[in-house]
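Q: TTF-type domain-containing protein, please. Structure only.
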Amino acid sequence: MLRHIKWSKRQTSNKQRSLDSYFKVARQAGNEETGDIDENSVAINPSPNESVIEAEPALACSENTPSTSSEILLSPIDYSDPVQFNKRSLSDEDRLKLLKTKWIPSSNSYIYPKNNQNRRYNKSWENDYSWLRYSPSQDGAYCSLCIAFQDHPSENPRYNEFVTIPYNDWKNALGEMRGRLALHSNSERHLKALEKVVSYYRFRIREGHL
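A: Structure for TTF-type domain-containing protein:
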């Protein structure tokens, strides 16, 4: 039984690496004012017979250094806030906007609000988890892939974290074994969404929409 569990974990890890090899996010340093690291393009590593095609630069929405999330004023449809795409039917264009858009503070002096654990969201997490999207209106984190291709919600709140429920337990965000970011990234739900995103991008490329 133990051997089977170890084999299953190894199989999941290999599957994640295989999928990640098809879905890589290119990053480069932001402008000199902010020094932010931003996702500028989504590139799919094709099979040997295909060429590499990059998507357009990711969009960004900036705000003026508020001290709390309640002070952030969002437009009626602010595509930089992932919550705008939640709990509704998404068109192909909606999915593309969600995957290519993220909220970025206007300055590196921006201070994310503290939660009840006296912890804050850390933007550097986005360097390791390209799917991570911060919602300024919820002061919580979402997964752009799992929102873009949602499955049926569960009665288990933990299952719905990063999708219909914002994640904000910043204290337990990191850690290879128990960190919530790593656990979500390797979850079956996330891996299925990642497969769908890869297929979606390949279809858009074949149709000439990217």
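A: Brief note, in case it's useful. Residues 61-206 form one domain.
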